[in-house]
Specification:
The complex is a heterodimer of chains A (274) and B (238).
Chain A (H helix, E strand, L loop, with lengths): L7 H26 L3 H20 L8 H21 L4 H23 L5 H9 L7 H30 L1 H6 L4 H23 L4 H15 L3 H26 L3 H25 L1
Helix pairs in contact in A: 1-6, 1-8, 1-9, 1-10, 2-3, 2-4, 2-8, 2-9, 3-4, 3-8, 5-8, 6-8, 8-9, 9-10, 9-11, 10-11
Chain B lengths: L4 E10 L7 E9 L3 E5 L6 H9 L5 E6 L7 E4 L13 H6 L13 H13 L15 H13 L5 E5 L7 H14 L4 E5 L3 H7 L2 E5 L4 E4 L14 E2 L9
Parallel strand pairs in B: 3-7, 3-8, 5-6, 6-7
Antiparallel strand pairs in B: 1-2, 1-4, 4-10, 8-9
Classes of the chains: A mainly alpha (274), B alpha/beta (238).
Amino acid sequence: MSDLFDYPFLVRGFISVILLAPLLGGISHLVVARRMAFFSAALGQAAITGVCVGLLLGEPLNAPYGGMFGFCLLSTLAMVYAKRRSKLPPDTLIGVFLALTLGLGLCLLVAVTRQFNVHQVEAILFGSLLTVTDADLVLLVIAAIGLVVLLFRHYNDLLLDSLSTPLATVRGINSAYLEYGFAIVLTIAILVSLKVIGALLVEALIVVPAAAARNVATGTRSYLLWSVLVAFVAGAGGLLISTRLLVPTGGAVVLALSLIFFLTLAIGSLRRSA
Amino acid sequence: MSKDTLLEISGLTLRPAREALLTDFSLTVERGTLHAIVGPNGAGKTTLLSAVLGLIPFDGRIVAHWTGRGRMAYVPQQFQIDRTLPVTVTDFLALSRQHFPVCLGVTSATRTRISLLLERVGLGGIETRTLSVLSGGELRRVLLANALDPLPELLILDEPGGGLDADAARWLDETLVSLKGQMTVLMVSHDSEQVRRIADRVTHLRATDAHRFGGQAREHPTNPTNQTNFTNRRTHEP
């Protein structure tokens, strides 16, 4: 373990995991409560398209945030707007957006690979600690602080709105404001996590911690604590696996997450049968 | 409008789909009464409540003439929660009763308030149970407890007796009767026996229109200083 800290990029990786665990674990249980898991998957795919747009517009390969953030924000606002206006089920609408952004992303990826080596783009798709910079860590800190502030101010409203929008509306809560606001925060959380986890797998770190926490949580407080704990243990464990076995960080983290999920599933079953 | 009028609905047209569900509908709810809306499935009872609650757009005019607390509370017909969501009764009731995030803990003052509230609806001791394990009747009581604190000026109930056994239905009747005078109650019900037992006024909705009986439709100028106009939707004044 001690040699882990001999390399600056591994130190940055470990710090990013410490920051990502409360960020994604904290947001995870609200994402699942608000049934936005598929929305997260669509945003991860939109990020790939956003990266391509940014690179084609001349952004540097190690910080393609402009295109990524711009495109994902646009996709987020469009998805929430369509969801609120259309009578179609949300998953159908999000499926349409996912297909659209993925199709566009694949077309643009071909154009991008004419300028860059495809292996350079792989880091965005699968996550790589080697590409995490000090500026990325600063972004992570800002995003984590923003999330804590949001949770402190609006957590109760968000959860009540997730349980019953009519009850929340009668209490004077602006459901539209919450839905757009939370979707934007989720977009930012996903974007700042991409370099570590990768676009293809970021959804896992948004959904699995909450899913694992549900197996063992007995109330809202333990639900949050378990989500954060699962995200942290999987993040740190994935980091170790990734550096020891030289596999992509995102894949290793998701493997660790899946292992923890099945472990909590077994614990939950045992507890219920006891 | 009489000074005893709390809720005034006029020229209301509801179109949840292409065809209008209610057309040019008018209703006056008197202060301190228990006003029931009855009618067959598809007549628009729940949709009417949704319009009053501000959940759907409509054409027409809905005005509440508040005199005191100016607060509306609602007990929905359905409250379908994810069975795996670990939200306890205390967590749920605390969401509307403390600013501190419930995921970080429920304050002792809020816990005391919730315990008293649950005692009031005959559910003392269920604080740590999750919502998903409650029976339909228990959940209905928890929702009623949630609606009664703080005391609203207008309580709106959608099929409050649905799924209740005889004892629970009797308890509900007694509770609603005891609330008369403290607040105005507007409820939708399929249960004609319950309506006959406890309602002061009844509005019957037919499948395509509304036919009113059991009350006087009195129209007076509104007092702009004491009214809440439901402004977040389309309205037209005569």
